[in-house]
Amino acid sequence: APTGLEGLDSVTLTRFVLHGQKSHAEAKGDLTMLLAAVQLACKVTETCVRRAGIANLYGLAGSGNVQGEDQKKLDIIANDTFKVNIQSSGKCCVMVSEEEDLAILCDRTYNTGKYAIAFDPLDGSSNIDANVSIGSIFAIYKINDPAAITTPQEAAKEILQPGREMVCAGYAMYGSATNLVISMGEGVHGFTLDPSLGEFVLTDPNMRIPSRGKIYSVNEGNARMWDPATTEYIKSLKYPEDPDKKAYALRYIGSMVADIHRTLLYGGVFIYPADAKSPDGKLRLLYEAAPMAFLIHHAGGKSTTGKEDILDVIPTGIHQRVPVYMGSPEDVADFEAVSTKLANSV
Ligand code: P6P
Prior knowledge:
hydrolase, carbohydrate metabolism, 8-stranded mixed beta sheet, metal-binding, alpha+beta, magnesium
């Protein structure tokens, strides 16, 4: 579908969102303001990531987070940047961050926020010091009655909505270029940061995932701990029964934003299964699996936990983990067929 911005040069993200706002009579510009804050947080984070080596920002901060992970200096910088910019937008009432134990109730003095946002401020941070692509992921939900929320526990309850209810999802990837991919439920659109402008400029309108790919993306180092359906499915990709079928290639960066971005562009399937070590998988639903599933869905792809569509999972906790299979619809359907066949054979 045309974006209505065809032919315009330098369609910035702000201009694109404003244009989208005009097509929704009820929109008052709150989401536009919130996205302007998120965009700024991504730009500040990008600057810090690019300068990390020079400004001695690599390495551990000497603290841990709720995930029990060693926090990198950049994790903390990115988290603080997202919190302060989102709060200053005045449009958000609840924030959930991978780096924060509890949900945060935004300052109510000037905050008329009707939105809640879950974010992973710097995903893939174990790769930072090796200069591997990393990114920020966010998911925005609407809150019914912000004034009724008075505690972090009540705030958490308000954001525990299935991914299908999401208003907007996106990720920024700090790679060889810095790009931002976003969906508000009407197509998926890719922007690239133009350093000469300091603006994200529309470069990939209406992104669509190929119906089938030739790449699978999983940490083969965990193969000994996989469930039978995952083992069987991946075996079928590596040793196709049909002699005319080519085996799939393996590409695994170990940074979800980079692995999903490649899957969105080239097709194929990204998998982080449950395994003996992590019975619910490793990836977090609220700020990793659900926003990525929302983007993949609106680009024509599919996602599943192995039991249900990731967008249908009703979260029970803000740091809940889920198994993840997502990507090209035909590839994910092939996995579901293997899973169903095995389930029916027991
Ligand atoms: P593993 C990064 O730490 C992360 O959260 C995701 O970005 C990435 O997909 C996954 O973990 C990699 O996990 O166990 O394969 O190193």
